[in-house]
Amino acid sequence: MGSKGHHSSMMILWVMFLAFLIMSMIVKAADPDPLVDFPAGPGAPFTFHDITANGVVTQTSGGTRAALSTEVFPATIGEGITSVKFILVPCGVNVPHTHPRATELLNVVSGGPLLVGWVNTSGVLQTDRLFAGDVALFPRGLLHFEQNLGNTNLTFISALNSQNPGVLNAGQALFAIPNPVLATALNIPIPILQIFKNGFSPALLQTSPLSGCIPLA
């Protein structure tokens, strides 16, 4: 091969390498960087009062979830961040779930212990128990959960590095799979699988008398 052909091959390799780098940056990026000081606009409030009352609130057997959104707090538009407040009742669980577009940083405000855990892509579980003032990090896209092991309500606040991190409930996703596929994966008969499906609740915060949880004094 002549020098001209060699140079052409090298140029092609460099172009492919640069394209790979650019695509990697796009894939790894969370929300796009803002192009102005305050994307919500100069007149938008930059403070938000009483997230428990005025946020996007859901209450279930496991406790209360109060979240920000760009609709209730437009200041988060284009900033690549949001926050959620949780109040878990004793034995309340924030069921296994993932955030496909965000890493989560959790801070326990009051109560405890809080059992936290996440599973990596090798299927290895990591857990710990947290008390007021403790912090946990859940990597983006990985399955994680929390459970209040104490005998009083527990409060924690999570920050996520996306204005729309997404929440994928693991149980809800699992039971959306067709019965023959799921029965094969779990190696159980379809009638037994259907019993599990019939008793499933898609709520994120739950308690269950079947869990065997006994709150710690």
UniProtKB/TrEMBL annotation:
**Domain Cupin type-1: residue ranges:** 49-194
Q: Which PANTHER family match?
A: GERMIN-LIKE PROTEIN SUBFAMILY 3 MEMBER 3
**Family named by the database record:** Belongs to the germin family.
Q: Can you tell which superkingdom this protein's organism belongs to?
A: Eukaryota
Instruction: Identify the InterPro entries for this entry.
Output: Cupin_1 (IPR006045), Germin (IPR001929), Germin_Mn-BS (IPR019780), RmlC-like_jellyroll (IPR014710), RmlC_Cupin_sf (IPR011051)
Enumerate the Gene3D superfamilies for this protein: Jelly Rolls
Q: Which UniProt keywords apply?
A: Apoplast, Manganese, Metal-binding, Secreted, Signal
Give the signal peptide, or none.
Answer: 1-29
Q: What is this protein called?
A: Germin-like protein
Tell me the organism.
Answer: Sphagnum jensenii
Q: What residue ranges carry the coiled-coil annotation?
A: none
Q: Where is this chain's protein located in or outside the cell?
A: Secreted, Extracellular space, Apoplast
- Predominantly, its location class is secreted
Q: Which Pfam families match?
A: Cupin_1
